[in-house]
Design goal:
Layout (H helix, E strand, L loop, with lengths): L1 E3 L5 E2 H8 L4 H9 L3 E3 L2 E2 L5 E2 L4 E4 L18 E4 L3 E6 L16 H8 L23 E7 L2 H12 L4 E9 L6 E5 L2 E3 L7 E3 L7 E9 L3 E8 L6 H8 L22 E9 L6 E5 L4 H10 L1
């Protein structure tokens, strides 16, 4: 894995913790064990990165503390020998990172089955794509490496259809919209992404489902899969996702953003069967819009 630094004067352990899924503690260990190099040289965790530094990360680092299986009431919508479809609740982190090592979906998957793809390493067994912690709904999990390889290409080549429902703040004026705005990490807040001219291509299709007095329920289909893409794009056009603690941040409750992975449609990587699944909105989300009615 190679990263070209776009910021200046930030400790490398902090910079990588914000720009990768590795925890700061793990990054420190990898630096000391020479699994991370800057411009082909070993550096200390206190090293401050410079623009255009080339950081190389060897992903084959052996983690001393194994991830522990944790019993969870996983909502498994579909399962066979090669894949699973999970309906993830809001509040559940998908895989370890940034100090959260065990209370993640990965721990729940390890408790459920020993058969999980390992192409992405121990901390991401089974994970071929992810949802943000407070985004609920459908996501795919791979049990076999063959299924993982095929689905990874399907995601890359936009052959997996994903539709999200979101409640936006404000009455959106048009019935549809197409947002084409590149996204990169914020230069002032490393926990946030933002629309930037030098960011990666990001495209979102929006369709209004229903308007309320001060809110709009919308359907969103992604053409790309950038970090926080929907949340960033909605805030950018002036209609942030309701209850978003990062991009709206007006007394957000513990539930987090009202964003739900509603529909997923794909071709089974092994059987080639066309599959589609749909998920009901979480009760907290549904109860809120019922009150708006």
């Amino acid at each position: 894995m190679e990263i070209i630094v776009k910021e200046n004067d930030i400790r490398i352990d902090k910079y990588l913790a914000m720009n990768t899924d590795y925890s700061r503690e793990l990054i420190t260990k990898m630096l000391k064990d020479n699994y991370i190099k800057v411009n082909d040289k070993q550096v200390k965790p206190s090293y401050k990165v410079k623009i255009d530094d080339k950081i190389e990360i060897n992903p084959n680092y052996i983690i001393e503390d194994e991830i522990s299986p944790v019993k969870m009431d996983l909502n498994i919508v579909y399962e066979d020998d090669d894949i699973m479809v999970i309906d993830k609740p809001s509040g559940l982190v998908v895989h370890p990172g940034n100090g959260n090592h065990n209370n993640t979906l990965v721990s729940g998957l390890l408790y459920h089955t020993d058969e999980l793809s390992d192409l992405e390493g121990e901390e991401r067994v089974g994970i071929v794509h992810r949802l943000d912690k407070d985004t609920s709904g459908l996501m795919l999990v791979c049990k076999s490496n063959k299924a993982h390889e095929i689905l990874k290409e399907d995601f890359k080549n936009k052959r997996v259809y994903r539709e999200y429902y979101a409640l936006l703040v404000g009455r959106f004026p048009s019935s549809t919209a197409y947002i084409d705005a590149p996204i990169g990490r914020s230069k002032t807040n490393f926990n946030k992404m933002e629309v930037r001219s030098d960011g990666k291509i990001a495209k979102t299709n929006l369709k209004v489902i229903k308007r309320y007095q001060n809110y709009t329920l919308v359907s969103l289909v992604l053409e790309t899969g950038r970090t926080h893409q929907i949340r960033v794009h909605m805030a950018y056009i002036g209609y942030p996702v309701y209850n978003d603690p990062v991009y709206q941040n007006k007394n957000a409750t513990e539930f987090g953003q009202f964003l739900h992975s509603k529909v997923i449609r794909f071709t089974h990587p092994i059987t080639k069967e066309n599959l589609q699944f749909e998920s009901d909105l979480p009760k907290y989300f549904q109860d809120f819009i019922d009150k708006l009615n």
